[in-house]
Amino acid sequence: MKAPSPNPYGYYYPNSDNSRTYKTGDATPFQQPGDYNCFGWALGLNRWFFPYEFGGSGTVADVEYYMADHGYAEVGSDEDWDIVFWARPGGNPGIQDDEVTHAATRSSHQPDSYIWVESKMGAQERIVTRMTDLDNSCHSYGAVLNGNRVLYFRLGD
Amino acid sequence: MKFRIINRAFYFAFLITCCFASRISYSTEREELKIQDVAKEYKETVARWDAFISDPRNIDNPTDSRGDSYVNNKPFDEIVALGVPALEYIVQDIESGKNLIDFAFKRISKKQFTNTEMWQPGGYDAAIIRWWRNGRANIKEEFAAYYEQWTKTPQGKEKDTRFKTLVGVSVLALPYAMEHLKEGNEQLMPAIDYWTDNKPKEAFEKLEGEEMSKKDFYLAWWEKNKDFWLVPQLKKPAESKE
């Protein structure tokens, strides 16, 4: 694991802290072969995976259906999980229509009592950080970016 | 001198004819784009978009994985505005590995892939390429089958789902919907509106002082603009055999 790098995401991730953010992969040349995003990373595909590839428009319900079809079991946040998803409100009540915005894998790096995750930040770097550091990201004008953690999955045996 | 006067009279007569003919406007500006210019214009428009999103100041959220921050902008809208004639060039870019341009394909074509189609190796982009290079050869039959299913389904939620499936065959089914309209069947006008982003509907709503049914207007609009919306049909495998 590389030394902590300057965290350029503090603006969008108010909970994050440069001192506990580690870069594990470079930013990928945008729009070029080899580019990948958080979904591509979490699913082990290492390509840019569009949210509508989950089916529909990439809602929580779409992700649940996709993951079940691809051999993942949905589990609770306090259980043993491999992948976590964040989502932002989709306009309708409940979370089923919320739009997934980010995904991360559980990191092998767990230095303290917090849960640490690894994720690709869009076209930017892949990082390891505390999971809670990625919660509730938002624009300066208040619009929700990543929202809350909503789904946890474990790869089936 | 006499020749110049006749020439000038002819010119004015031509101008008056043009003005009269354009009282009813069936066309929208993008549709008048010369097809042969599309390749060049596509390349230039994509270059403008590339330049726009390369500037970090233009990206709301550089950590965006949904892609919205890169495609919700004017330069990208200009790619989409190139419409159906640009689809071939978009697919060529997808084949070369260009990311996010498939949003333009989605927005122009209105093609809806099934999960089974998308969940094959290569995902959405591979599904686009397969469909554009081969699958769309069957669009006429697909449209006919989905249309029949939709018309036979009673009003309700299931009919709405059937309609989504029907329009999901893509904008390339527009000529077949127009055939239905020619025969007096107006059921597919909402599908026409969907595929065309309401182009004939908006033009019809701007119509002033002319007595014309919506159906006739749509048919006239189609005759005027169909070259923009048609793409060369693919031969089916059986037809392409020597």
Describe this structure in words.
By secondary structure, chain A is mainly beta. Chain A has one domain (25-155). Chain A contains 2 helices and 7 strands; from the N terminus they run βααββββββ. Chain A has a 7-stranded antiparallel beta sheet with strand order 1-6-5-4-3-7-2. The longest helix of chain A is centred in the middle third of the chain and has 10 residues, at 60-69. Chain A is globular. The model of chain A has no long low-confidence stretch (mean pLDDT 87). Chain B has 242 residues and is mainly α. Chain B has 2 domains: 32-133, no CATH class; 138-230, no CATH class. Chain B is built from 15 helices and no strands. Chain B is globular, with a radius of gyration of 21 Å. The N and C termini of chain B lie far apart (63 Å). In chain B, 30% of the residues are buried. The interface between A and B is medium-sized, with 37 and 24 residues.
List keywords for this structure.
heterodimer; A: 157 residues; 7-stranded antiparallel beta sheet; 25% strand; globular; B: 242 residues; mainly alpha; 2 domains
Overall mean confidence score, pLDDT of chain B: 85
Shape of chain A: globular
Q: What oligomeric state is this?
A: heterodimer
Strand content of chain B: under 5%
N-to-C order of helices and strands of chain B: HHHHHHHHHHHHHHH
Number of domains of chain A: 1
Number of helices of chain A: 2
Radius of gyration of chain A: 15 Å
How would you summarize the topology of this molecule?
The complex is a heterodimer of chains A (157) and B (242).
Chain A: E1 22-25, H1 38-42, H2 60-69, E2 72-75, E3 83-88, E4 99-106, E5 116-120, E6 126-130, E7 148-155
Antiparallel strand pairs in A: 1-6, 2-7, 3-4, 3-7, 4-5, 5-6
Chain B: H1 2-21, H2 38-54, H3 68-71, H4 74-81, H5 87-95, H6 102-109, H7 115-118, H8 123-133, H9 139-152, H10 157-167, H11 174-182, H12 189-195, H13 199-205, H14 214-229, H15 237-240
